[in-house]
Amino acid sequence: MSTEQCVETTCGENSLNILTPEQNDTKNKTLKRTPFSKFKKVHSHFKSPLQVTETAKVDPEKEVAELQEKKEQLDLEIAQLEAEGYRVEELEHHIDKLHEYNDIKDIGQSLLGRIAALRGTTTRDLYSHFGLELDD
């Protein structure tokens, strides 16, 4: 007897209780996914944490005015920094150096992790072995 026939009829003593997808869906509707949950709203619908309400919409003219005001504040800060002797090129150079430093530090952290794994120890122990401080 084929499996398809066993679905509709009993196939002797060793029969399997095989359900069609439709029967399985009907059976599962009576079962809950988490019957013993201590949380009351386990079976509620999903609500996004980023919900925009109708009252949250900003008037475009008001938004433009706020952005212009912010631009003026930033222009004042730039002028103040330039008056103190800072240059945009110098700041960009410092930012590039910080990116380079962070890349090198990430590689060092990765190497310390691999060495620690090979030695069967922690990276904390390797810091003291190589004379590094935990803040480095």
TrEMBL record:
KW Lyase (keyword) present: no
InterPro entries xref list: DNA-repair_Swi5
UniProt keywords, alphabetically: Coiled coil, DNA damage, DNA repair
Gene3D superfamilies, sorted: 1.20.5.170
GO cellular component: Swi5-Sfr1 complex; Swi5-Swi2 complex
Gene: SWI5
One Pfam family it belongs to: Swi5
Organism in which the protein naturally occurs: Iconisemion striatum
Homology family: Belongs to the SWI5/SAE3 family.
Assembly notes: Component of the swi5-sfr1 complex.
Protein name: DNA repair protein SWI5 homolog
GO biological process terms on file: double-strand break repair via homologous recombination
Function: Component of the SWI5-SFR1 complex, a complex required for double-strand break repair via homologous recombination.
Top-rank taxon, per record: Eukaryota
Coiled-coil annotated spans: 57-84
